Amino acid sequence: MKIAIIGAGAMGSLYGGLLAEGGQEVLLVDVWQEHVDTINQWGLSMEGVNGHRTIKNIKATTNPSYAEAMDLVIVFVKSTITHIAVSQHKKLCDNNTTVLTLQNGLGNIEKIMETIDKKNIIAGTTAQGCTLLAPGKINHAGVGDTYIGELDGTTSPRIKEIHKAFTAGGLKTNISNNVLGLIWGKLLVNVGINALTAITNLRNGQLVEFEETEELLELAVEEALAVAMARGIELPYGDPVAHTKKICRATALNKSSMLQDLLNKRKTEIAMINGAVVTEGEKLGVKTPVNKVLTNLITVLEKNQ
Q1: What share of the chain is helix, strand, coil (3-state, %, to 5)?
Q2: What DSSP designation does 67 have?
Q3: Contact of 97 with 63, CB cutoff 8 Å
Q4: Which of 104, 100, 101 has its CA nearest to residue 268?
């Protein structure tokens, strides 16, 4: 299978590397020239849970205009630039190309639909953990399941083919008939963790060590749950608040991606996480004051960098 990955940061590089190891023809697309050059010259260096090795049967580029249409395009850029990234690289797609988003937050499917026909789009979530250590070097920090699915919940031949390719690369993958529920399920966890850790400079586990942050986590997640219920979303777990606290404890030492973004003076994905809850709530008549406060505070911190 010919696969392009738009956004070869930590997660994009991880999936690209593992898929290449599994025998797929992989092209990483990223704006970081040094990262791209290192991979092309020396290969992708991967260390972590599955040992240290260098993956050499992989290509990278900052300009894929020469490339032919792919069988599969995986979008791993920040949600804030989804539309720009996909539209700039639409030559990677033709009528037979499947585009998969494994990004965080809400709205990515709709942004991809501005360029790609809805019938060519599938979605999913990932619980893999990875960090980018240096140009051409990543640390596979944690193994987790990948879920992929058609937007209409069917089990199509292409989903089965992609599942096979992912599994061949060592990615434990499940086909879901409720992928939108999974996306919302992951969103609620991010709603409870990301903004609070970024504002307080706390690690994930510390959120449940202080009664004040634990209460705010509960309120933010409960608001998001009310919005999800109003949308008719079927979540993949029973108690979102308990589930989010469980994730806090399981990833206790982690610095959330939003906290890392602020520390590195990068734009966050607040608009697609807590901000998306606020936006959806306004559409549905569901009040979300805590998420509004968290969104505004993160926005001010971004502006003040």
Answers
A1: 50, 20, 30
A2: S
A3: no
A4: 104
Strand, coil or helix: 48: strand
Domain span including residue 166: 2-176
- Check whether residue 103 and residue 199 sit in a common domain: no
- Structural domains in the chain (count): 2
Q: What element of type H or E holds 84?
A: helix 82-88
Are residues 213 and 72 both part of a single domain? no
Tens of pLDDT, residues 76-133? 999 999 999 999 999 999 999 999 999 999 999 999 999 999 999 999 999 888 889 9
> Are residues 92 and 226 located together in one domain of the fold?
no
The total of other beta-carbon atoms located within 10 Å of residue 55's CB is 18
265 noted as active-site residue: no
Model confidence pLDDT, tens digit, residues 182-225: 999 999 999 999 999 999 999 999 999 999 999 999 999 999 99
Residue corresponding to tokens 């020396």: 42
Tokens of 249: 């404890």
Residue 60's DSSP bridge partners are: 28
Does one domain contain both 113 and 222? no
SS3 of residue 271 by DSSP: helix
Find tokens 């608001």 and name the residue.
223
Cα dist from 57 to 24, 44, 97, 104, 120, whole Å: 9, 9, 22, 28, 27
Residue 38 pLDDT > 90 = yes
The full length of the chain comes to 305
**Which two tokens mark 304?**
């003040």
pTM tops 0.90, yes or no: yes
Give residue 299's identity as a one-letter amino acid code.
Answer: T
Q: Which of 78, 137, 186, 245 is catalytic?
A: 186
Three-state SS at 231 = helix
- 156 and 88 fall within a common domain: yes
Nearest CA to 127 out of 35, 292, 237 is that of 237
